[in-house]
Batch of 2 targets.
Target 1
Amino acid sequence: MRTALVIGTGLIGTSAALALASRGVTVHLADHDPAQARTAAALGAGTDESPEGLVDLCVVAVPPAHVAATLADAMRRGTARAYLDVASVKGGPRRELEALGLDLTPYIGTHPMSGRERSGPLAATADLFEGRPWVLTPTRDTDTEVLNLALELVALCRAVPVVMDADAHDRAVALVSHMPHLVSSMVAARLENAEETAVRLCGQGIRDVTRIAASDPRMWIDILSANPGPVADLLAQVAGDLDETVTALRALQSADEQKRAEGAAGVESMLRRGNAGQTRVPGKHGTAPAAYEIVAVLIDDQPGQLARIFADADRAGVNVEDVRIEHATGQQAGLVQLMVEPRAASALSAALRERGWSIRQ
């Protein structure tokens, strides 16, 4: 791949353009808002000038509702050897293209499973896709050269290719992305009018659950409008679980011992189902989740504290597998949770204590 045209210079389009440009591909940028394309160009994502001739690959990075029309326009103008989109739904846009009667041999639907709470070109980074799955949905009509160019794009962005059927993809992202976003928003909505004294008690749990609720609603309306059926089906199942859990919790208020026992059993069943589901979430490097031990370290909110902790862990010969930070409300301090292999936890705790760190159980 020597040349590419990226149509749509939001977070995903600009990030892909930055990755391609950093690896020597000449990237042309286009957007319905020329100012946004100029911003992406100023960031080093390419040039906002139109290509003089045929490019190798046209990447369409627009909202799902506009994918088919944008692709159809680019294909009719003959702008590229190959075309792909990066929308978060795949079945609908392809059916729209088929209805337009276009030759789809030069097209493949794709979806990089990566993003941020922020949107727009200023939120873009060249490493946004590194190590992340990038779904490809080829059909029997997809030309081999087109598939190869799509795989080259994935490789240049240092993502991990995953081949799926388009409709299977849409059901999967409804489960792992679209439905969780709505549930996160529903939980966060409970905070909108909550008492300030209650909100001040927010800890890491509520932060984890509501983090993705900060995303742009306009973007999510586009996404959910393109995949409403599978998301609604899943939310109906969640609603059923909520009804059962509410019934079980009400039973715990009963004066009848048998009803309280049934309520406790119902709540426990829900929690254990949650345990079982959570263990299926892939862990580090996509492997089965490992059982790490946490070494919790109290730190001040001062420059260089995290660097010192990681340097001291390195001196102790311990690999930190993951890290979380729990901030103390109203204090210039926080708790850094270092996740390590169980056999390394004692050695790391001892080494950090020797270097003056305050370890918490």
Target 2
Amino acid sequence: MTETTPAILPPETFQRRLLEWFDVHGRHDLPWQQQRTPYRVWVSEIMLQQTQVTTVIPYFERFMARFPDVAALAGAEQDEVLHLWTGLGYYARGRNLHKAARVVMDEHDGEFPVHSLDAMAGLPGIGRSTAGAIIAQSTGRRAVILDGNVKRVLTRLHGVEGWPGRPAVERRLWALAEHYTPHQRVVDFTQAMMDLGATLCRRGQPECGRCPFEADCVANARGEQKRFPEPKPRKASPTRQTLMLLLQDEQGRVLLQQRPSSGLWGGLWSLPQFDDMASLQAWLDQHAGTAELATAWATFTHVFSHFRLEITPQPARVTRLDSVAEGWHWYDPAEPASIGLAAPVKGLLEALQPFTLSAPAGHASAPD
């Protein structure tokens, strides 16, 4: 392999090439680019974290229709916020979005503190890069960003070694981002950096032949595009098992339990979970002695970022159950409540047929 010395381009050269490319090939009609406000930009930036634009667009539009401003969001119940977040994943983002809206209302008189990078970064769920993106995109003031797309562009362009999560590597990337960020056309520049990483300098198959920096890119010169950025050192993903109780009453309603506010599926509603059949049966004996168990559905796997969860749905039918306490809810699939549901639970409820203890036809296993 021939070593290639990473050359730092003059900022004016970098900016000119990038913006010329963006003017022709960039994305200019995304929903959050219309009627730009700190609120709309903020919601879009949080939704776009680790999520593709095509996935986010319908969620963003539904969210804006229900919560058109920060006051509406702050005044809502968390359940309703998580209901609109269901299926988008990484639910801590939705909880933090709700918390941040209340902080903006209570501590900033309903106005986002876009005058201060530190104040923005101090809101729940907002880090340095997201704060910079909100400020740049909503006010046009110079602010530096370093999201996943920008990291990928810069590590490839300069052949930056090491996992970007390491402090020394991250400092190097922030210095490069600072070097290239202009004082003019900041809105377009920050969008262009994100677009370049999302549409050309992609993780899997980058289109180097269409890139305005093809001739200057260290990774391209070495033929090592897929090597950069270096991945996080991996640990073996553990596998856990759980039984999910699908307890239906005579009306076809299903018993749900709200998860703790932090941790797995924090604040969402889920089916009661048990480590084994003995603990599940003990719970039924205590709370639903008349319950009738059916054959368990096929086990399926739900993959999280740090572990795999093997879920076995266990249907049961009960003719009578004492009124449930706070934190429990009888969910009617025919008239679903506006509550946040864990993704695999939502799939199970959609597959469940009322008044039956059998797996739905065509579902050898529950949907993932």
